[in-house]
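step: validate -> pass
step: tokenize input -> pass
step: predict -> running
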Amino acid sequence: MPGSIAYIALYGALYAAFGAASPFWPKFFETRALTPQQIGSIVAAAMLMRLVSGPCVGRLADVLGSLRLVLASCAMCAA
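step: predict -> pass
step: emit ->
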């Protein structure tokens, strides 16, 4: 499989997994006795973290010149 197709497949799978799980997070947090404001804060913090960390990790990969190492490190941290 060419590299570009594998890259697109990886990101497609990541976004599909997030899209499948995200509708259930508010109910999960609600069962933990969190208020709607706290749930909104948690969801907003997660989005903000992704918004900030994406460019930072991309910059780190460019500086190190090791794209695969950074991607593998991020995958291990996420797991």
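step: describe -> The chain has a mean pLDDT of 87.
step: cleanup -> pass
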